[in-house]
Amino acid sequence: MYFLSIDTRPTTRYPDVWIIVPAFGEAAVIGDVIAGLRSVFTAVVCVDDGSTDDTAAIARRAGAHVVRHPVNLGQGAAIQTGVEFARRQPGARLFATFDADGQHQVADVVRMIERLDSQGLDIVIGTRFAAPEAAAAVPLVKRLVLRAAVLLNPRIRRLGLSDSHNGLRVFNRRVADRLDLTMNGMSHAGEFIALISENGWRVGEEPVEVLYTDYSKSKGQPLLNGVNIMFDGLLRKKMSR
């Protein structure tokens, strides 16, 4: 169960696109992240996943709709809550997931929307590995783990994806209406891939820039996340046989 507060201030750009921002303890940066999104997009919903700081209040002041989890449920649950909220809104056609820590770029979302519409895709996932210089910017441990996740998961390889755990995604109403994430933490990314495969959604990748700042790196737990990703890959390898 969650509590809801809505910012009703009118804006006019991209009224049919909803940006979903899962956030936990991001008071230091969430205002700038939301302001950047709101400079381009009409509808932004921030799902505050049980933060104990001012994440929710700052996000709302910056112009986001805010949905709050009373306790921390994990990123997968926050994304699912955001999608459920967004797909209930009149005229919602496209949806995007966007990290709250300042790593993702608004320009990449615009380009991914154009790609989805022009090629008739159901979902576009960002990739950090389309160009050597972009791949080199990914911290070494994270890069090795993400590469291993692709090798361990036959579904990822069959779909032709190189960066399945990228949190920047754009998808259409068909995907949003069927999305039902049940796994939290980083495991939800593997579940997303399974849903793409099982539902036959048309998927593509788009090169994106991910900014690894001191702040975003301090927020992460690379070793723990790496173990989770590897375990998820091994589990799904067995399940997909």
Structure description:
This protein is an alpha/beta fold and 241 residues long. The chain has one domain (3-239): Spore Coat Polysaccharide Biosynthesis Protein SpsA, Chain A. Helices cover 46% and strands 17% of the residues. It has eleven helices and eight strands. The protein has helices at residues 30-38, 55-61, 75-87, 106-119, 132-136, 140-152, 154-159, 173-178, 187-199, 214-219, 222-239; strands at residues 3-5, 17-23, 43-49, 65-69, 94-97, 123-127, 169-172, 203-207. An eight-stranded mixed sheet has the order 1-4-3-2-5-7-6-8, sandwiched between helices. The longest helix is centred in the last third of the chain and has 18 residues, at 222-239. The chain is globular and about 40 Å long. Mean pLDDT is 84; it is low at 6-10 and 233-241. InterPro entries: Glyco_trans_2-like, Glycosyltransferase_2, Nucleotide-diphossugar_trans. Keywords: Transferase. It comes from Mycolicibacter kumamotonensis. Residues 19-178 form the Glycosyltransferase 2-like domain. Belongs to the glycosyltransferase 2 family.
SSE diagram, text form:
Layout: E1 3-5, E2 17-23, H1 30-38, E3 43-49, H2 55-61, E4 65-69, H3 75-87, E5 94-97, H4 106-119, E6 123-127, H5 132-136, H6 140-152, H7 154-159, E7 169-172, H8 173-178, H9 187-199, E8 203-207, H10 214-219, H11 222-239
Parallel strand pairs: 2-3, 2-5, 3-4, 6-8
Antiparallel strand pairs: 1-4, 5-7, 6-7
Helix pairs in contact: 6-11
